[in-house]
Amino acid sequence: MTLVKLEEFYPEYRESDSHDIDDIKSFDVYDQTNDKVGSIHNILVDEQTGKFRYFVVDTGFWIFGKKVLLPVGLADIRYTDRRVYAKNLTKEQVENLPNFDELEKVDYDYEEQVRGVYRTSTATSGMTQPATSGISQPTTYDRSTYNYEQEPSLYDINKQDSQSLKLYEERLIANKQRRKTGEVSIGKRVETETASVAIPVEKERVVIERTNPTNATPTNPGNAFREGEVARMDIYEETPDIRKEAVLKEEVKVKKVVEQDTVQAQGTVRREELDVDTDGRPIVDK
User: Fold this and answer.
1) Quick one: which of 19, 44, 40, 18 has its CA closest to 29?
2) Which of 76, 182, 194, 221 could form a disulfide with 85 if both were Cys (CB 3.0 to 4.6 A apart)?
């Protein structure tokens, strides 16, 4: 019978829609005379069955710095008042209870110390057996065969008055995360090619025409027979003048579009079911 802390058995209990379990860990503990004993520090759970076995009570109001175990069967939980009433708990019992420091120390002998203190206050709950002399004697238990069901007055939370046992189940919470799946890079490069363009050009040429006069009248001009006389004429031609300029040929726009898709996710969830032991007595399930 190994005990574990609540968060070790139910690691995700805080994420449940109902926070009653987590709230209990902040409830105050009172005795039957309405005196404050302390507060719930933690809850110990049966590792095999998941059932609550003990409340860890910090008794700072009674004995500073001492934590003790309170069997769940002796706890009257009042959710409205946010209180836990410890049935028949006395300051003397708290003083006699072993201090709870580390869970590793909780073995059968340790639990027997705890049970021995509480058995004195639950002697009328069927924990004694008649002797041949007619005097009731405490029930003895065997280490190798002991189980919590043998002492329902200490551990049976189902049969306590004004108790409510809350059953929990896990559910899958769907969430989304954005992650990078790829990258598109668009750049540009420069390519060269030889282009040609037709340019009409003009070139000047000198045309020399010789003519013979029809009227050859004798003259004696003054500039006749002058050596070295020259007629000059400038000749021009056009040559191609090529230059380059950048013009917009094409524009490329890059944008993203979002596509909707539905994916299926699966996971294993746990659910608590109610175990009812009638012990021969009829129970009406409401």
Assistant:
1) 40
2) 76
Calculate the dihedral angle through the C-alpha atoms of 184, 186, 187, 191, rounding to the nearest 10 degrees: 120
Distances (CA, A) of 17 to 9, 12, 50, 169, 173: 18, 11, 19, 10, 11
State mean pLDDT over 78-82: 86
Domain boundaries, the chain: 3-159
Tokens 């954005």 correspond to 178
The Cα–Cα gap between 250 and 248 comes to 6
Tokens at residue 62, please?
């009674």
Q: What pLDDT does 114 receive?
A: 92
Q: Shortest CA distance to 143 belongs to which of 110, 100, 104, 96?
A: 110
**Residue pLDDT, tens place only, 184-222:** 888 888 989 898 889 898 998 989 888 887 776 666 666
Beta bridge partners of 58: 39, 67
Rounded CA gap, 56 and 52, in Å?
Answer: 11
Q: And the tokens for 58?
A: 């910090």
Q: Which residues of 146-173 are buried (b: 16+ CB within 10 A; e: fewer)?
A: eebeebbbbbbbeebeeeeeeebebeee
Long-range Cβ contact pairs of 116-122 (< 8 A, separation 24 or more): 117/93, 118/71, 118/74, 118/88, 118/93, 118/154, 119/154, 120/93, 121/87, 121/88, 121/89, 121/90, 121/93, 122/74, 122/88, 122/153, 122/154
Four-way CATH pick for 3-159: 3.30.110.30, 3.20.20.220, 1.20.1440.20, 3.90.50.10:
3.90.50.10
